[in-house]
Amino acid sequence: MPVMKILKKNLADEVTWQYDSKVLHRDENSITVEAFFNRDDMPFQEIVLKRNDRFVETFYTDKWYNIFEIYDRDDGRLKGWYCNITKPAVIEDGLVAYVDLALDLWVSADGSRKMLDEDELEELNLDDLTRQKVYESLQELEEHFESKNPPR
């Protein structure tokens, strides 16, 4: 499987986090990769993110978000979906880059949803068009998860 480097960037186009992943699927407007959580165990919402939890991450060139499906390292159980509101991803040979726009949606394995980091979004001082895209994307994600049919 080809290796892809994932680059998370801020609005100034500076890399704030990077890691390697393996390609699972690629089509015209998206890529799905597998990566493993590379930080120490940490509580998050109602779960614990553990070092080596399996992340199946889908990035889109035509949508303003990405979706990380998270599986427990010990028993393989689905923990939930972490959705980042972002500018559309740039997918190149060996590289996926995205600009994080702060707002996130956490969807638990039981389907309950929680919006995260709205305060960080406010600090970004986005222009009106970008702000509109952020909230349209959040609404699109909410609708997908409401239908119990997360985007693939």
Provide a concise account of the structure shown.
The protein is of the alpha+beta class. Helices cover 16% and strands 50% of the residues.
Kindly describe this structure.
- The structure is a single chain.
- This protein is α+β, with helices and mostly antiparallel strands and 152 residues long.
- It has one domain: FomD barrel-like fold, CATH 2.40.380.10.
- It is globular, with a radius of gyration of 15 Å.
- 27% of the residues are buried.
Please tally the helical runs, counting DSSP H or I stretches of 4 or more residues. 2
- From the spread of the alpha carbons, the general shape counts as globular
Order of SSEs: EEEEEEEEEEEHH
Mean pLDDT: 94
Q: How big is the Rg?
A: 15 Å
**How many β-strands, per DSSP?**
11
Strands ordered across the widest β-sheet: 1-2-3-6-7-8-10
Report the sheet-strand fraction: over 45%
Structurally, how many domains make up the residues?
A: 1
The CATH superfamily title: FomD-like
Helix content: 10-25%
Distance between the termini: 20 Å
Low-pLDDT residue intervals, each spanning 5 or more residues: none
CATH topology: FomD barrel-like fold
Q: What class, by secondary structure content?
A: alpha+beta
What's the CATH class, please?
A: Mainly Beta
For the record, the CATH architecture stands as Beta Barrel
The main β sheet shows up as: 7 strands, mixed, barrel
